[in-house]
Amino acid sequence: MFRNILLATDGSAASAHAAKLAVRLASAHHAKLTVVYVVDPYPYLGLGDTNPMGLHAYLSSARDHAAVAHSQVVQLCAAAEPPVPVELRLVEDVAAAKGILRTAQDEQCDLVVAGSHGRGGAAGLLLGSVANKLVTQSPVPVLVAR
């Protein structure tokens, strides 16, 4: 049924749970798993003089965090039976939901899997702000893992 499943990860516990679910689904459907990590725009631009080293440090840290999150999913894919083919994507300087939806479209994914709470924490109350945007704006089905 599914050929290409998009997993949105941010390294949180909720996205780790979503990753396990996405890998099981991809394995059962013999689907490819595309894993996206979105780096939000640098939060301090436009607040007077900006230190370029702050932007560099922010991006470097975010890329390191993305590499860790990606490697955890790669390990899950390799351990699955049958193993799941995986492609990794890093999207920078865009809001999380927009980056996830753009990647789903660009990669022609037929399902999006995401955790119910990640970086947004309690900001989205019951569902999570990013998950809520995915559910309401995605042209393909979205599976939200609690």
TrEMBL record:
Q: Which Pfam families match?
A: Usp
Could you tell me which residue ranges the UspA domain spans? 1-146
Q: Which InterPro entries match?
A: Rossmann-like_a/b/a_fold, Universal_stress_UspA, UspA
Tell me the superkingdom of the source: Bacteria
| Keywords of the record | Cytoplasm
Subcellular location per UniProt equals: Cytoplasm
Give the UniProt entry's GO cellular component terms.
cytoplasm
Q: Which family would the database say this protein is a member of?
A: Belongs to the universal stress protein A family.
Query: What is this protein's record name?
Result: Universal stress protein
Q: Which organism is it from?
A: Caenimonas aquaedulcis
Q: What is the lineage of its organism?
A: Bacteria, Pseudomonadati, Pseudomonadota, Betaproteobacteria, Burkholderiales
